[in-house]
Write a structure and sequence with these properties.
Structural class: mainly alpha
Number of strands: 0
InterPro entries: Sig_transdc_resp-reg_C-effctor (IPR016032), Tscrpt_reg_LuxR_C (IPR000792), WH-like_DNA-bd_sf (IPR036388)
GO molecular function: DNA binding
Shape: globular
Low-confidence stretches: 1-7
Strand content: under 5%
Oligomer: single chain
Mean pLDDT: 89
Helix content: 55-70%
Radius of gyration: 12 Å
Protein name: Regulatory protein, luxR family
Order of helices and strands: HHHH
């Protein structure tokens, strides 16, 4: 059985890795370099994470993940 903090969370390990980098204060460009992908892909993935979490901004997604103990 999943823990209460992850039971209904629509994020995978890659999503959480992206959020961790944003939480460290890295820019989109630096996150893209760290993840070996393009800026556009990071922006698209960040928008998808925000949509799944029902938040408007990447910082709100980071805050929600942190509150759930995932970061």
């Amino acid at each position: 059985m999943a823990s209460p903090t992850t039971e209904h969370l629509p994020l995978d390990d890659d999503d959480l890795a992206l959020l961790r980098l944003l939480a460290e204060g890295l820019s989109i460009e630096l996150v893209a370099r760290q993840l070996f992908t393009s800026d556009r892909t990071v922006r698209r993935r960040t928008r998808a994470i925000c949509d799944r979490l029902g938040v408007a901004t990447p910082i709100a997604a980071v805050a929600q993940a942190a509150r759930r103990g995932l970061l």
